[in-house]
Amino acid sequence: MGENILVVDDDKLLLQTIKNLLEKEKYSVTAVDNSNKALELIKQNFYPLIILDVRMPDMDGMELLKRIRDIQENSHTSTIIVITGYADENVPIKAIKYGASDYIMKPFDITEFLYSVNKNMRIARLEMEKIKYIGEIANKNKELERALEELRKTKEKLEEYNCSLEQKVEERAKELNELQVQLFQSAKMAAIGQLGAGVAHELNNPLGGILGYAQFILEKFKKKDFKEEDIRACQKYIETIEKEAIRCKKIVENLLRFSRRPITFKKESANINNVVEDTISLIHHQLKIKNINVITNLQPNLPKVPLVINQIQQVLTNLILNAQQAMPNGGELKISTSKLLNSEKTPSNYIKIEVTDTGVGIPEENLPKIFDPFFTTKDKEKGTGLGLSIAYQIIQEHRGNIEVKSKVGEGSTFTILIPVEEE
Amino acid sequence: MVNENVNILIVDDEETIRNMFVDILQDRNYKVDTAINGQEAVEKIIEKAYDIAFLDVHMPIINGLETLKIIKKIAPRIKVIIMDSFPDSLTQEAEKEGALASIHKPFEIKTMLEIIDKALGINKEDIRENV
What CATH code is carried by the domain that includes residue A42? Predict the structure, then answer.
């Protein structure tokens, strides 16, 4: 209410009449009597409703409409009512083509006139609201676009961070893997330190044969009455030397194979009994020296199991060395293998390996910590406390399980379960 | 003392070591018997009077030290020589328990013969004194 209406008519009387009428209707009215003045005003102000007479002396009505449209091209557009005479035939239609909204024919009825003004003012208001809403929507849109742009930038940054994070994680995983490999190798070397003495002792027996027979043969060659039978005897002795040298070679190979740093941790299908026997051959002499009787109970025809052989040897060596240390005055070491069939307890088939000693046993309060890293009851020179925790890790990586049962004064049994590959 | 009258017992669980002693010592006319462990050694000592026994210190079931103690009880006259690959605590204990000496594997023929002479040398003095 109270909106501004511009009335343009060269008929001063009509102009005034219309002005009075509209002001009575509580509109505010600007009245001008020529087109150029009107155009000036329109340039400076916005009139939601313009009423103009189409027949004016200074400008053609269509021309005026066109000019108004030009002025308002990029801004708010006014609703325009044109006043035409009856005589003007195509004017109303033409005017509407040129952008007028409505037309009133002279002479006109006041009621009709007002009705048209009010009607068109409603249109003008709607138009203004529409423009207002369009403006608001445009603003909201801009805000949204800004927000979207920020979101996009944030997403880009996140992706960058993610990439570099993934890289860092990969690098760190590689580092950790390398460290784990080193750790396993160190633990293995520590075990080899303990095995080394046993192996050295073991080598001295075949070497004794080699040295003794070599010297004996040289003696024979120095004899003045070197006979046919001496040749045959020497041949036999040389064969013994050869046999003992090959035995030395095997003993050394065994140890080197175990101490070698593995290239991969790839699992291969293996017979657990062979692995047990190879491990025992590495260590049996040492056990003999310590007065430990080794009993093996290896079930024949066990199914093959996917193993990292070097690692399983490391586990068994660790268990056997621990057993040896638990029996400082000698005792019995029993190693058995068997197949554990599918049952409610185990969802698939397992190979069971048991290592039992008749040693001092493990106190009950220590049993839950036995596989913890760095847990040890030995003094520093004898143990780092890593052996069993690494053994535990290795068995976990074979999807298996390792447990201990023990009684102080009686001995301990370590049980390893490794699942058989499902065919 | 003539070699033919010297009875030597070799106690070692290693076949090569036993064979080597037999080949080398019999070539020199010593009388040589062998045993693969302490138990067999004691059985043989009960049957025959040995002058010298070579005893490996690390043997299964009864180790060299235990065997030595038994020998010193049932046949104290036998000169016992301990064999091992490197002197360790067992060797020291053996010498305390009355072993004459120890030799370390691998040893040379020379060493074997010297130690036999040493063992017999002491016997020779005993005999001279008794006369």
Answer: 3.40.50.2300
Query: What is the chain A residue with the closest CA to B24?
Result: A216
Report how far apart, in Å, the C-alpha atoms of A220 and of each of A5, A230, A372 are: 144, 7, 62
Residues of A with CB under 8 A from a CB of B: 200-201, 204-213, 215-216, 219, 233, 237, 240, 243-244, 288-289, 291, 293
Residue A271 covered by a domain:
yes
Whether B18 contacts B34, CB under 8 Å: yes
Range of the domain at A56: 4-108
Question: Considering CB atoms only, which of B58, B60, B85 is closest to A293?
Answer: B60
Is ipTM over 0.90? no
Using an 8 Å CB-CB cutoff, list chain A residues near B61: 293
Collect all residues of chain A within an 8 Å Cβ-Cβ radius of residue B54. none
CB-closest option in A216, A237, A240 to B109: A216
**Cα radius of gyration (chain A):** 54
Of 3.40.50.2300, 3.40.50.300, 2.40.70.10, 3.90.79.10, which CATH number belongs to B3-130? 3.40.50.2300
Q: How far is the alpha carbon of B18 from chain A, nearest alpha carbon, in Å?
A: 9
Question: pLDDT tens, position by position, for chain A (423 residues)?
Answer: 567 899 999 889 999 999 999 999 899 999 999 899 999 999 998 899 999 998 888 888 888 999 999 888 877 788 999 998 877 778 888 888 888 889 888 888 899 899 999 999 998 888 888 888 988 999 999 999 999 999 999 999 999 998 999 999 999 999 988 888 888 888 888 888 878 877 888 899 999 999 999 999 999 999 888 889 889 999 999 999 999 999 999 888 888 888 777 767 788 889 999 999 999 988 888 888 788 999 999 999 888 899 999 899 999 999 999 999 899 888 999 999 998 876 666 567 889 999 999 999 999 888 888 888 777 777 665 666 778 888 998 999 898 999 999 999 999 999 999 988 654
Contact yes or no for A211 and B106 at CB 8 A:
yes
Q: Is residue A133 part of a domain?
A: no
Question: Rounded to the nearest 10 degrees, how much is the dihedral formed by the CA atoms of A333, A195, B66, B44?
Answer: 90
Nearest neighbour of A204 by CB, restricted to B20, B85, B109: B85
Round to whole Å and give the CA distance between A400 and A419: 6
Residue A215 lies in a domain: no
Please answer yes or no on whether A207 and B58 come within 8 Å at the CB atom. no
Q: Which of A59, A78, A108 is the C-terminal boundary of a domain?
A: A108
Q: Where are the domains of chain B?
A: 3-130
Q: Given A85, A108, A131, which residue is the final one in a domain? A: A108
Other beta carbons within 10 Å of A407: 12
Q: Do B108 and A215 touch (CB under 8 A)?
A: yes
Q: Are A65 and A71 in contact (CB under 8 A)?
A: no
